[in-house]
Amino acid sequence: MAEGRTASRGRKPDLKKELRDFASARPQGWSHDDWLEFLENLQSRGHNVNDREAIGRALERERLDLKLSGIEGVGPKRRYALVEHYGNLWTLRNAAPDEIARTASMPRPLGERVKEALT
Questions:
Q1: Is residue 100 within 8 Å of 114, Cβ to Cβ?
Q2: Which of 20, 34, 72, 101 could form a disulfide with 30 if both were Cys (CB 3.0 to 4.6 A apart)?
Q3: Smallest Cα–Cα separation from 104: which of 89, 118, 84?
């Protein structure tokens, strides 16, 4: 077997896909038990789960990106700006519409719509 590949499929595990799949299946969030089961599942699929905090941050970013992707007028560049700046759903939910609009270079009415869609 080639170096750096997993035995199961012959390729590296895709953490981003795993995170997105987990968050997509739980649009309302997840419990602590769900989180622990997810980490166990990741480890069984060949992921290094030693830095749980980093995995948690990445999962929150995926969750935020998923929520934003359902809002008309918020394309990839604006989603990226919001995810980079806020990092999680809770922080963006608590931001003012003006701040949201400035962060993602969007009109204030769209910032208001983002705020409304996430509350």
A1: yes
A2: 34
A3: 84
Q: Give the distance, in angstroms, between the CA of residue 75 and the centroid of all CA atoms in the same chain.
A: 15
Q: How far apart are CA 19 and CA 116, in angstroms?
A: 25
Task: Name the 3-class secondary structure at 21.
Answer: helix
What amino acid is encoded at 11 in this protein? R
Q: How far apart are CA 5 and CA 19, in angstroms?
A: 20
Residue with tokens 């992707």: 69
Contact 88, 63 (CB under 8 A): yes
Q: Which tokens sit at 76? A: 């990839």
Tell whether the model's pLDDT for residue 111 goes beyond 70.
yes
Q: What is the pLDDT of residues 61-109, one digit of tens each?
A: 999 999 999 999 999 999 999 999 999 999 999 999 999 999 999 999 9
| Among candidate residues 79, 77, 53, the one with its CA nearest the CA of residue 64 | 79
